[in-house]
Structure formats: structure tokens, C-alpha cells
Amino acid sequence: MMSSFLQDDSNVKRLNLTYLKCFTIDSYETSEIDDAISIEIIKTGAYKVWIHIADPSAFIPLNSPIDLEARIKGTSIYLADGTKPMLADKILSEKISLESGKIKQAISVGVILDEFGGIQEYELTRSIIRP
Which is nearest to 31 in space by CA: 107, 101, 99, 79? Predict the structure, then answer.
């Protein structure tokens, strides 16, 4: 039943960032691995920091029952006695989670920093990454 509400976004243009070393930054215990970071040295010698967030919109259609339920929840809730995830565990683990070594869809922000760490430029893009 889960698959009847999921979509395939293979027609969406995504920037291929799989050449970057990409490291997830979520807690070791989390079941929602959805944050990652990369650093790239560009032609000018400057650093470009990439911040990646798993892209659930790659699989969950806008205004679908799954989307509407996730909007009501707003976030996953972490309690002392367990977690109440925003999305179903099966969707998270099979589709969205940024699993190591697998190509995954993400929303990525690339930020070029100056020598003092200030932002010179930035870009926001849909991407594919390989944590």
C-alpha cells in the first residue's frame, strides 16, 4: 500500500554531486539519517561547503495523504522512551535515509567561503549524493 502514494522523480533535473566525499552528520542512534556535509576546493582555491538534506519530495507527492500527515506532525519527536517519526519508518529507511554508499536524492546548498569564513556566494539545488 505504501507504494501507491509514492512517486518517481526520475524526470527532475538534479546536480550530480556524487564525486564529493559526503559525510552524514546525524547521531549514531538515529533512524532518520537525513543530514550530510561535503567540502569542495573550487578552481579559485576557495572552499565550497555543501550542506545536504534528504529530499522526501523526490518520493512523496505534494498534497498526498503522506505529505498532509507529515505537515500536521511537522517534525519527528524524540522522547526518552522512543521516537515518534514524522514519516513512516519504512519510507524513511527504504527511500529517504542517506545510507552510506548509496546514491540518494537531496536538497543541497553550496556555500563559497572567503578567507575569513564569510559567505561570498551560495546556491541551492536538487542533487544526488553518495554519503
Answer: 99
129 and 108 Cβ atoms separated by less than 8 Å: yes
Closest CA to 37 of 22, 55, 59: 22
pLDDT in tens, 84-110: 877 777 777 778 889 889 999 999 999
Contact assessment for residue 89 and residue 83, using Cβ atoms and an 8 Å cutoff? no
**Phi (first) and psi of residue 5, to 5 degrees:** -105, 0
CA angle 90, 51, 94 (to 5 degrees): 10
Say how far apart CA 48 and CA 34 lie, in whole Å.
20
Largest Cα separation within the chain, whole Å, is 52
CA distance readout (Å), 118 to 40, 72, 105, 107, 122: 16, 36, 28, 22, 11
Q: For residue 110, give the nearest of 55, 57, 37, 58 by alpha carbon.
A: 37
CA distance 117 to 53: 22
